[in-house]
Design a protein that fits this description.
The complex is a heterodimer. By secondary structure, chain A is mostly helical. Chain A is 75% helix and 0% strand. Chain B is mainly alpha-helical. In chain B, the strands form 2 sheets. In chain B, strands 1-4 form a two-stranded antiparallel ribbon. In chain B, helix 2 packs across helix 3. Chain B starts with a helix and ends with a helix. The chains are: A mainly alpha, B mainly alpha. The interface between A and B is medium-sized, with 25 and 20 residues.
């Protein structure tokens, strides 16, 4: 149990997928302009990523094996696209309100490089099934955390007195960089 | 080589079967358009569109009976969102409808108020408290700024106060896309930021 907790915490803080691994930057910059959208994107990504890391482990372990390892990226993309599509159908049926909130962000997860990155990192780290799922969930929770924090900051920034040259994306980039620096501070958390 | 093809084919078949099953199992009826339009409208229930409220106006838009440019509280952002939702062209406010005003809240001059309750009856959101021959006052947080209470007042003690934009009530402006710059040049420059 302890090792799963370690994997979870390390994926959320120490090896944060956005701030430390620098993956999934396009939703990080693109969907962080409003807090509600950021939360929705985070929730959808968490669901998809947890499912994707589990199923991609199964595919890699039972279907591909070492001799077909050159197919990992290709097959993971196919599986992720399928899961995203499936998720969208289920959400639309079970909770139309959530579907309305998530809107376009749900299908956009297909092309989120963090979602492909985590299954690939799982393969690299030789995680087993449960470890893969926990790593995927931790990565996604870290993504959500950073999205929510960053969206909140950007909403404040919009009302702040920023020099004209830095307005908009420029100050957001600077903020993201500073945030990334501060996440480096977590690196001593787990030995 | 053959095994690679087989594996990819197997993944594709399984995913296809799951998605095909999900499409039947989780089939949803066409989206209820009225609810979607109603969600875009500002819910001031002010009747400036000549319909008795936001929901009737939404029903009329969905039925194709009303134009999308009749809602002053929604502003041009509202028209833009309706245009996006319905897939029609953006339309500026018509000459027969009221133009949008800055967000404001009604205020009763309490020393002039005679307690006639006419404004209470006019208020669509019950934002006015008071009783007959008693001074009335407005719950500012509930007031939608619809101005319906201004006309019935026999002593003209109700005025509209513009709400100043401060950091506590500031909100993101909805983006207006440059696509419409061809038709209306002033609205993109004025409301973009």
């Amino acid at each position: 149990m302890k090792e799963y907790l370690l994997i979870l915490i390390s994926a959320v803080f120490v090896n944060n997928i956005v701030m430390v691994k620098i993956l999934g930057l396009c939703p990080f910059m693109g969907v962080s302009r409003k807090l509600e959208a950021a939360i929705g994107m985070g929730a959808a990504t968490t669901f998809v990523l947890t499912l994707a890391s589990g199923s991609s482990y199964l595919i890699n372990h039972y279907l591909l094996g070492p001799e077909l390892s050159y197919l990992t990226t290709l097959s993971f993309i196919v599986v992720i696209a399928g899961i995203v599509q499936f998720t969208e159908m289920v959400v639309q049926k079970t909770s139309p309100v959530l579907h309305q909130v998530l809107g376009i962000y749900l299908p956009l997860i297909t092309t989120n490089c963090a979602v492909l990155g985590i299954p690939l990192l799982n393969v690299q780290a030789k995680h087993n099934f449960m470890e893969s799922i926990f790593f995927g969930m931790g990565g996604a929770l870290g993504f959500t955390l950073v999205m929510v924090l960053f969206a909140a900051m950007r909403e404040r920034l919009e009302g702040a007195d920023v020099p004209a040259i830095f307005k908009g994306s420029a100050i957001a980039m600077v903020t993201a960089g500073l945030m990334s620096l501060s996440f480096m501070g977590f690196s001593g958390l787990i030995k | 080589m053959l095994s690679a093809l087989l594996v990819m084919a197997a993944i594709a078949i399984v995913l296809g079967a799951v998605l095909g099953f999900a499409a039947i199992k989780f089939h949803t009826e066409g989206n209820p358009l009225v609810d979607k339009i109603d969600a875009v409208l500002p819910q001031t229930q002010c009747g400036q569109c000549s319909y008795p409220g936001c929901k009737p106006y939404a029903t009329a838009i969905a039925a194709g009976e009303a134009d999308i440019n009749r809602c002053p509280p929604g502003g041009e952002e509202g028209i833009q969102k309706l245009a996006d939702l319905l897939g029609v062209e953006f339309k500026p406010f018509g000459s027969d409808t009221a133009a949008p005003k800055p967000k404001s809240v009604a205020y009763i001059d309490e020393s002039t108020c005679i307690g006639c309750t006419l404004c209470i009856q006019a208020c669509p959101v019950d934002a006015i408290v008071g009783a007959a021959k008693q001074m009335h006052t407005i719950i500012a947080a509930e007031c939608t700024g619809c101005e319906l209470c201004v006309a019935p007042c026999p002593v003209d003690c109700i005025s509209m106060l513009v709400i100043e934009e401060k950091i506590s009530n500031w909100k993101w402006k909805y983006p207006l896309y440059a696509l419409n710059a061809v038709q209306t040049t002033d609205q993109t420059t004025g409301a973009e930021r």
